[in-house]
Amino acid sequence: MTRDPADLTAADHLDAAREMTAADRPFLAHLLAEEAARLTPDPAAAAGIRASFPDPTTTRMETD
What we know:
This protein is mainly α and 64 residues long.
């Protein structure tokens, strides 16, 4: 594991996003995936990453 966050790659961020999804932390997973997408040079791949980890505040269902 690296000590400098600037050394983290898109793959590192995606791994962390998957871990946060498994830990039921969707907003943190979304933020990590956004950073992975930002670091991804291919626009289509970046769009796929964003689609895989949507913003939970826009997908949340309100219940009474």
